[in-house]
Amino acid sequence: DTEVTQTPKHLVMGMTNKKSLKCEQHMGHRAMYWYKQKAKKPPELMFVYSYEKLSINESVPSRFSPECPNSSLLNLHLHALQPEDSALYLCASSQRPRTGYSPLHFGNGTRLTVT
Amino acid sequence: AQTVTQSQPEMSVQEAETVTLSCTYDTSENNYYLFWYKQPPSRQMILVIRQEAYKQQNATENRFSVNFQKAAKSFSLKISDSQLGDTAMYFCAFMSPDNTDKLIFGTGTRLQVFP
């Protein structure tokens, strides 16, 4: 069983829709991440939140808007997406403060299709 | 910039046999962390094994072990007594010890275990 829960598992949306992806963890981790993964490719980092503050934005288009309302929740708001944004979106979390290495714990992802 | 290379797009192995997946990386840093993640069809990225660069001893986790060659910048994964459940995509990943939170993935190796 995954300790990082993502909803929904699948999402189909039109280019004019507004939708949100949700991620939740109860491991006490204070760093949370959004990754995008295209088919047969490795995950690509989009955003990092550390102690509920955005610490990394990998030049992601503004049609993706992250939000971290508290230490357990991470949202990704989607608006006016393009078909090329169709991908698997993975959420992950890790410990803070980071003493030595702190591996990422991933959720099962949301499979997004933009029509 | 750090890079991670997995030169084997696909591998196959018979059940109960041993298989080795290759990974090389490039960095100018002396201390860093290396990981192998497994992604089965369920889509979740699962941590298989981790290695700290300052530790000379190779990490082992049950049937999984690594051959870490720091001078050669090589980090291969050996799976012993392969099981059908080992069928998955395997990603090698690099993390810097600073606070950038960036996990750099290789392109992955698809492993198929045959009965």
**Uncertain ranges of chain B:** none
Summing up helix and strand content along with how strands pair, one would put the structural category of chain B as: mainly beta
Estimate the helix proportion of chain A, in percent. under 10%
**What sequence of helices (H) and strands (E) makes up the elements of chain A?**
EEEEEEEEEEE
Question: Which pair of chains forms the biggest interface, and how many residues does each contribute?
Answer: A-B, 27 and 23 residues
**Beta-strand share of residues of chain B:** over 45%
Radius of gyration of chain A: 14 Å
Strand content of chain A is over 45%
What gap, in angstroms, lies between the N and C termini of chain A? 31 Å
Low-pLDDT residue intervals, each spanning 5 or more residues of chain A = none
Mean pLDDT of chain A: 92
| Strand segment count of chain B | 12
- Kindly provide the radius of gyration of chain B, computed on alpha-carbon positions and rounded to a whole number of angstroms: 14 Å
Number of helices, counting only DSSP H or I runs of 4 residues or more of chain A:
0
Quick recap:
The complex is a heterodimer of chains A (115) and B (115). Chain A is an all-beta fold and 115 residues long. Chain A has strands spanning 4-7, 10-13, 18-25, 31-37, 44-50, 53-57, 64-70, 73-79, 87-94, 105-106, 110-114.
Main traits of this protein?
heterodimer; A: about 120 residues; mainly beta; 7-stranded mixed β-sheet; 4-stranded antiparallel β-sheet; about 0% helix; B: about 120 residues; 6-stranded mixed β-sheet; 12 strands; globular
Structure, explained:
The complex is a heterodimer of chains A (115) and B (115). Chain A has 115 residues and is mostly beta strands. Chain A has no helices and eleven strands. Chain B has no helices and twelve strands. In chain B, strands 2, 5, 6, 10, 11 and 12 form a six-stranded mixed beta sheet that branches. In chain B, strands 3-9-8-7 form a four-stranded antiparallel beta sheet, with no helix packed on it. A two-stranded antiparallel sheet of chain B has the order 1-4. In chain B, strand 10 (88-95) and strand 11 (103-105) form a beta hairpin. The chains are: A mainly beta (115), B mainly beta (115). At the A-B interface, strand 5, strand 9 and strand 10 of A face strand 5 and strand 6 of B.
